[in-house]
Amino acid sequence: MLKWYKEAGQNNDVVISSRVRLARNLKDYPFSAKLSEKQAGELVEKVKAAAPLIENQASMKFYSCSADVLGDMEKTAMVERHIISPLLVAKEQSTGLILSNDESISIMINEEDHIRIQSITGGMNIDEAFQAANKIDDITNEIFDFAFHEKYGYLTSCPTNVGTGLRASYMMFLPALTVAGKIIKLAEELGQYGIALRGTYGEASKSVGSLYQISNQKTLGSTEKEIMDSLDRIVEQVMKQERRQREYILTNNYDEFEDKVHRSYGVLKYAKQLSSADAMALLAQLKLGIDMNLIHLGENYNIHELMMEIQPGNLQCQLDKNVGSVQRDKYRADYIRKKLPEQV
């Protein structure tokens, strides 16, 4: 079964993925920050025990585990693949995870809230992501008694999530706006509309390979549809800005940029060592060149898939051992050489 990041969806030249998260809390437990260690352990086991029921009703294969006992390498790889959040990794309390076979649906247990249902799809398709998350929400709502207020909606640890508990986001590839130095101004403009622009791995993270998360900041007072429609309108405008900036590059710096794209391909194809940062910058340049028809590979290859696979945690999982940065850089270069198709 294809993982979500191997799928190329609509507008994938700019929109890498669509994600919906639903925050829920069990009525009979304090919020996560107030849980005792005993309560945290009970909560995790209680939610994990629901995995077979979720699997049966969702007609999908799910796995469950105690996330806090996973190795650091596995946790890092899961953060890189956007299965779990850095916050879940950082928690010292008991935490858990229920994960679908294709990694498109994950349920984080005892993160900021007791339950975080996440659905993620390739390309621009927030409706599909929401429908999948909502289906899991309906199933879990029959199993658990969630904290809900008739006036305020779902009660959550963070006030900005109160209401629907919905956080919708797009992962966007914005290399042209990045090079033009327009990201800071864009973030300020989006903030005026209640939309946050963050780094690749969410709050307090930096952008890697010109990848950014764009999401709603508040949920109270809006329906799920209103939140997603508003986000879609904003993302459409950001797409237009990015594509307009790409056209500017083609019009004013065609030869120079074409040369950069082909140089990036050459380094990726023949380098013997590549750091994560260098590889991501070069792959971003190559993806942009492919999207702009400046370079053609022998097959229709998903560059974002390669971006995911060459991250430190995922590389070490493939090697099945922890290795130092020098060994990782050598293996990363070798992996890219073998995976990257020949140029036409």
Describe the 3D structure.
This protein starts with 14 loop residues before the first strand and ends in a 5-residue tail after the last helix. The chain is α+β, with helices and mostly antiparallel strands. 46% of the residues lie in helices and 16% in strands. The protein is globular and about 65 Å long. It has a domain at 254-339. The protein has an 8-stranded antiparallel beta sheet. It has helices at 37-48, 51-58, 72-80, 86-90, 126-143, 175-179, 183-191, 224-270, 276-291, 303-309, 312-319, 325-339; strands at residues 15-24, 62-66, 96-100, 105-109, 115-122, 148-149, 153-154, 166-173, 195-198, 211-216.
Give descriptors for this structure.
344 residues, alpha+beta, 8-stranded antiparallel β-sheet, 10 strands, 46% helix, 16% strand, globular
Secondary structure topology:
Elements: E1 15-24, H1 37-48, H2 51-58, E2 62-66, H3 72-80, H4 86-90, E3 96-100, E4 105-109, E5 115-122, H5 126-143, E6 148-149, E7 153-154, E8 166-173, H6 175-179, H7 183-191, E9 195-198, E10 211-216, H8 224-270, H9 276-291, H10 303-309, H11 312-319, H12 325-339
Helix pairs in contact: 2-5, 3-11, 8-9, 9-10
